[in-house]
Specification:
Helix content: under 10%
CATH architecture: Beta Barrel
Structural class: mainly beta
Order of helices and strands: EEEEEEEE
Shape: globular
Radius of gyration: 11 Å
Number of domains: 1
Number of helices: 0
CATH class: Mainly Beta
Number of strands: 8
CATH superfamily: RNA polymerase II/Efflux pump adaptor protein, barrel-sandwich hybrid domain
Strand content: over 45%
Distance between the termini: 6 Å
CATH topology: OB fold (Dihydrolipoamide Acetyltransferase, E2P)
């Protein structure tokens, strides 16, 4: 079952940590956001794999925006 992984903050994608097809464990980072000079990880919600990334490095993101699809 696919799950939308959402940003908790407004910021900018600083670094992509995982790509589509990567198997991750719960709490592994998918992307790192920069907000107010802080690095904030967006992590895997459970063990599974990244189906699709919806952002690229440098993209602005809003709080609540879906950044990846995970299953």
């Amino acid at each position: 079952m696919a799950v939308e992984v959402k940003s908790d903050v407004t910021g900018k994608v600083w670094k992509i940590e995982a790509k589509a097809g990567d198997a991750l464990e719960e709490e592994d980072p998918i992307v790192i956001l920069e907000s107010m000079k802080m690095e904030i990880p967006v992590s895997a919600p459970s063990d599974g794999k990244v189906v699709e990334l919806l952002v690229a490095e440098g993209d602005p993101v809003k709080e609540g925006q879906t950044v990846a699809i995970f299953e």
